[in-house]
Amino acid sequence: MRNSLLVTSICLVSGVAWGQSTTLTGQVQDAAGQPVIGATVVEKGTNNGTSTGPDGRFSLRARTAQPRLVISSLGYSTQEVGTEGGAVTVKLAESSTSLDAVQVVGSRSQNRSVTDSPSPVDIIDVREVTAKTGQLDVNQLLQFVAPSFNSNRQTGADGADHVDPASLRGLGPDQTLVLVNGKRWHQSALVNLFGSRGRGNTGTDLNTIPAASIERIEILRDGASAQYGSDAIAGVINIVLKTSVNELTANVNYGAYDAKYRFDDKKFDGGNFNANLNYGVGVGKGGFVNATVDFNQRQHTQRANVPAPDGIQRREYGDPKASNASAYLNSKLPINENIYAYVFGGVNIRKGDAYAYTRFPTVTDDNGNPIPNPRSNPTLYPNGFDPIITSDLTDAHGAVGVRGTFGGFDVDLSNGFGSNRFHYGVDNTLNATLGAASPTSFDAGGFQLQQNVVNLNLSRNYKTVLQGLNVAIGSEYRREWYQIFAGEEGSYRKYPGPLSDRAAGSQGFPGFQPRNEVKASRDNIGVYADAELDVTKAFLLAGAVRFENYSDFGSSVTGKLATRLKLSETFSLRGTVSTGFRAPSLAQINFNTVFTNVVGGKPVDILLDRNNGPVSKALGIPALTQERSQSASVGFTGRAGSVLSFTVDGYYIHIKDRIVLTGTFADDDPEIGTILQGLNVGQAQFFANAVSTDTWGLDAVLANTLGVGAGRLTTTLAANLNRLLIVGKAKTTPLLTGKEEIFFGERERAFVKASAPPYKVNLTFDYSLGRFGALVRLVQFGHVLLYDYNGDPNKYRDRLTTDVALSYALTNQLRLSVGSSNIFNVYPSFFNPQATENGGAWDAVQMGSNGRFYFAKLQFRVSKQ
What we know:
Blueprint: H1 2-19, E1 23-29, E2 40-43, E3 49-51, E4 57-61, E5 68-72, E6 79-82, E7 88-91, E8 121-125, H2 126-132, H3 138-145, E9 149-151, E10 166-168, E11 176-180, E12 183-184, E13 214-220, H4 225-228, E14 235-241, E15 247-258, E16 268-283, E17 287-298, E18 321-334, E19 339-355, E20 362-364, E21 370-372, E22 388-406, E23 409-427, E24 442-462, E25 469-485, E26 518-534, E27 539-550, E28 554-568, E29 571-582, H5 586-590, E30 593-599, E31 602-608, H6 614-618, E32 627-640, E33 644-661, E34 665-666, H7 673-678, E35 683-685, E36 687-708, E37 711-727, H8 740-744, H9 746-753, E38 759-769, E39 772-781, E40 784-787, E41 793-796, E42 799-809, E43 814-821, E44 853-863
Parallel strand pairs: 1-7, 11-14, 31-35
Antiparallel strand pairs: 1-4, 2-3, 2-5, 5-6, 8-13, 9-10, 11-12, 13-14, 15-16, 15-44, 16-17, 17-18, 18-19, 19-22, 20-21, 22-23, 23-24, 24-25, 25-26, 26-27, 27-28, 28-29, 29-32, 30-31, 32-33, 33-36, 34-35, 36-37, 37-38, 38-39, 39-42, 40-41, 42-43, 43-44
Signal peptide: 1-19
Domain TonB-dependent receptor-like beta-barrel: 347-822
Subcellular location: Cell outer membrane
């Protein structure tokens, strides 16, 4: 009865609101009177909105008695208008050089819109995406809306279980530069050791920034080291934080997976709860303070019980459990009409636990006979045990600066400091050398990366030089610190006694030892200059040059040239050529540890030696140096018949001396075997500038908005085609001559190539009718080829996933959305879990490995008139 009354009440409220509404119509034009396609039209104070069609016209059913409209479009100044006169015609002014100019990554000209850019740029409206899809964190949002972006959740991959590696155009996570509000953001302290993406790389943990704090994400799909510095070989991701004022938004989201392959009777798992709140207040004339708080909790999934030919080597396999709490701030504080200060940043605290490999009570000897497992203890764990690797991550970044106009120059001076600290623990474990007296949990130590950046940028636009010249110069000073800190003694020590022949340290994840501890730092200074010249209204030329010097390995000079030619008002050609570089991260130079891997069902302790460590020196591994790149892109943009808009860009990226994680050398190797035996480890591997790669690809985006019946249908087709080739043989040292297949063999090469599928295609249908909305999204993932520990090829075949979402505005301020991601419950190809990288029936590839996801979202938004 209560449920019936609730449903009836909702229907009555909705019906009253519907009955009181009126239809608003109008057209949005630019300053020349041409229609603006895809402009956003929102009824102020509500979540009611639409976009303009191919003729710039819109129709919107109002929900308030005296509605006002807020109209915006990228590259134009936002405008608010009343509707007292019936149909409205709105002319948007282009954003010009001002303190409020739109930040578009890839250009320092403040009067350049994204459609004018000579480089391909994607603009993702995060509010629109989060309102209509089941993904909650930034990595997964981008994975399914940006074809050139790839990110996977991993399991059984130690630290990578807690930080999802992400990449652009099939390159490494550390070959994409991340900015926030146009300022360099810090990387994670983690080095990825497992998995098909990010192996041997560091990267930026995008999930530390809550989606609720983000207004939009700009993805520059082009080499940009000359413009922004190290790491921008594949491109740049710029996260723009919210600037709204007098508007309160709140969201509550929950979803769970269809637990098809669980071994118990549980129907759902991996429950994901998210709640967030965002509010902004005005400060002075044109200033604001906008704040966000966000909480997310994700439960384990269990996918160990799957169709597989040869049994299992893990009883627990699935997504890690994690809880995130974040607080973020963005502000602009006017000082006078020409100068303002700004402060932005936030903190994220994450706690998680991930499954490690099972330690069964018995194992088989060389003759196939069962014997007690020397890595377990029958007194503590009669049935064996499943270690849990816990994580305690603290990530914070803050930036403060002042910006203003002085003598015709736009001057921006800032300082930003960021820190990422990763602290491990191990539960449900033991130190086998202590027998039944062993503790069952340990502090395993961890690592931390910190970065401080001082930045000075000056730019000026000369409107009288031909059709406009923009000149920018600047400098950046960056200092970085990296450290590894040891765990408690029992997490790593081999204790003397009757069990001293057993493996040392905590099972599942041996702790960092005092000999692993390191404190390292370096300085970097860079200077740059770039210019953009509109030779005519149709022809643009741009160029940039940058010099950087690192205190630990030397200098680099990079450059970039770009052009754009408008053949008509509806069609443009564009192209770029550039050189780039990426400095080896402090983590890659200094990281060293002993970790346990399971190969063919047998645990092996592996030493990852630091770049100047004893084993690396014994093999003559040289000091890491920078990666260098040459890249080019060519493409076209336009629209057909004012109905279809499109961009197509081909690209080529050559990278010399890529830093990779090598294969493993056994303790019987004649050069280093005795060293490994003395360290009580079975194998060793290293970081090295080992290979060169060529990447060829194509990005295409087509979009169309049409009136269908009384509603509006937006159709988007986005695709990325990508092929990575490893050029020549791996570069080894004289002592490793003849061991190239061990140093960087077929298996390691496959991991580099699998950073992205050969193609990914996204087709989205988004329909709105009054209070109702519907979205259908199809994503086709190309095949991925990996090799297992037996040397057998594992070809993960093409897969198509389908997402469906329905939404309805219950009131002017409240919207309910429900739906399913991967509604047809598609899984990757299954393989032998005894031989895969992470001990499950599949590796971390393609669209993930959890199956169908159901979700519901309640979104509340209200603003003051």
